[in-house]
Amino acid sequence: xxxxxPFPMSLSNKTEQVYxxxxxxxxxxxxxxxxxxxxxxxxxxRISIYLLHLKQRIRYxxxxxxxxxxxxxxxxTRVLFDCIGNLLMIYIPGNFLQFIDCSSxxxxxxxxxxxxxxxxxxxxxxSHDSSDILSTRTRPLPNKISTSIIPYYLTNHKxxxxxxxxxxxxxxxxxxxxxxxxxxxxxxxxxxxxxxYSLEPGTEIRAMHLTNIHVNDSEIMVRILASVxxxxxxxxxxxxxxxxxxxxxxxxxDNKLDNQYLQILPVTSIEALDSTSKPRLKDLELAAITTQxxxxxxxxxxxxxxxxxxxxxxxxxxxxxxxxTTLATFPGFLKNFFSxxxxxxxxxRKSSGSESTLSPQKQVAPTSKIALASNISLDGxxxxxxGDIQSYSANLADYFLQISQKESKEKLTEWANSYKNVQINVxxxxxxxxxxxxxxNDSHETVSIRSHPKRSQLFRVMEKLYTxxxxxxxxxxxxxxxxxxxxxxxxxTRTVFLQKxxxxxxxxxxxxxxx
Length: 515
Known about the structure:
This protein has helices at 70-76, 183-186, 191-197, 203-215, 218-230, 237-254, 259-262, 317-324, 389-403, 409-439, 455-472, 480-491, 494-514, and strands at residues 22-26, 32-40, 44-51, 56-63, 80-84, 87-92, 96-101, 109-114, 133-134, 149-152, 165-169, 174-178, 180-181, 282-288, 355-356. By secondary structure, it is an alpha+beta fold. Among the domains are: 18-288, no CATH class; 444-514, no CATH class. A five-stranded antiparallel sheet has the order 1-2-3-4-14, with no helix packed on it. The termini are far apart. One of its GO terms (cellular component) is trans-Golgi network.
């Protein structure tokens, strides 16, 4: 159990029974998880995670083919279960690290999963206040953490003011302090690291989601964009979609939008647990918990289609009409649309340097009013010739009206326009970052494109950006189509360019006829 004492680790020559390893993890008030390490075999450790607040169970095996010591090491290895913000963390030092996004406001999904060690080398310092090792052992100290560890708290684990978190290595009698190092995320956007560690497909998308939503570090995000622009083969339309979804959601959250409304807005392109592929998680099982759970842990709620998150920015007429039939089961969904913001901030707060604590965060007093309305300015956009931006805003306002019992249609229309402005600003920011980092040009000048040595790389990235924006039904960046056409003219053969141009013109004509 995760107690304040290394119990039941008594001084004994007898090997501990690691399958008795059970942790109860509180996700900073956003959920409660019961985690159990089961018995192991020659190459795997089996674990069960009970998401009590969601009444779901996850069960799978962690592969440990390359662990030092082989089977004998697996028999004494303890899996560490803890949390970072509202993310559940599963950790085996030097071998496995995984985050599961299982907050109570959305469907759970697997976050970043690594089968190798990103930890920095163990450091020593002269003071207990800044050291990574607290020990009375005589030197030499081990050069890495053993896999016989448990969480350890110098104070009550419910004390959210405590900035540090510790691991107790009961095999060597050493207490370690550990922190989340933001710089390590950048290693996941390096082509050499991807090749060296055989990262799973989608690791970079999960890393971007972690940075954007949970770490909430704009500086690291800018450096990630710069890194992938140096190696454009790392850029995919899915990665750009993750940036657009996460950045838009983050702005709305930072502007103190009511948490009930945030629950239906798109936040990530990562699939939920029951639909995503898990190639390296063995024997995965997902099941509902049928045992009765106290209401204060898993409150009984009626399933409502309106609570499902949107998958893109677009709201269509069929969406609105579909929700009219379920309106009676969801009264007051936006009742507190402009009321006090009461949800807890579960992002990883910045600290000195590039590190941040993994311990529970101190709650921040709620602000008085939502600041989201007409104060979000519009930088500019280029209307998609195949779409209708005004109709898009009107549909969004109608969608709000179906589930709001407090605000007038005029107020909701104003907010829908602000929401659209947020998306446009995010798209323009991404477009500017891509141009600046690929061709070293942060303006919209096109004169030098013809002879620029990286124009082909920029064109391929713009194709992926076009795909991402189309799939999300998002407004296009300012002057995007004219710049994209010029790039295509210089990067494509004349035959291919004319074919694409003709295809675009036909689509545009058909769309005009439909309207």
